[in-house]
Fold:
Amino acid sequence: MSEPSSPTRPDHYLAALQQSGNVISALTAYDYPTARLLDEAGIDILLVGDSLGMVVLGYQDTVDVTLNDMVRHTGAVARGSKRALIVSDLPAGSYDDAGTAVASGRELMDAGAHCVKLEGGEEVAPQIEALIAAGIPVVGHLGMLPQHVREEGGYKKKGLTEDEAQRIINDAKLLEQLGVCAIVLESVKGNTAGRVREAITIPTIGIGSGEDCDGQIRVTHDLTGMFPWFRPAFAEQYADIATDISKSATNYIDALAKMRP
Structure:
């Protein structure tokens, strides 16, 4: 576990984590008790991810998550966290242009986020420039972009060809030049993720992108076995909370049945 500076300066905080030599730890959080537990455990970063669309709201993917959803859940996480960096996703449709991105980013920051995350490279450069100019710190997201899963026809590994790998590397360099604090690499081929890390100085945080990143992020529901209906192949599971909940419910039902003769 690292001991970085205050998360109110995300760039300094993330740089300190990177320079510590430890792997940066990040997990998703969507509510007060989870955020508080993870924060007290010493997690470096809490991501209020639009993955809540699937593991909390029951949607098929992240596309239908709204800005109001993200604001509500960001507020809950902020009330539960005292030390971790809180990163909130800008959901699909909330950053279609620079002005909309800034307005959406301010709502998330007002709810308690320390910085916002949005998907894409060169195509969202104007939005990133506007956010940073407005004083809203930004984390980038390259590789597989969940908000585009419908148009891509599924979740697909990225960086498999040299052309695709070079596009990711070029986008990472551009995002660094624009001033993002870190870049999440999702479902990027391992050696491509390593090349990205070598090409930039800001932290890379991987999910399904191998070990050659400065940090790793996972969905807490995968880590704890809270969502048993699907778990990505790369996601470690260290607990089986779903089974414990089911057993608690059946034990409660059995206890109630014994209350009447």
Q: What stands out?
A: DSSP finds eleven helices and eight strands in the chain.
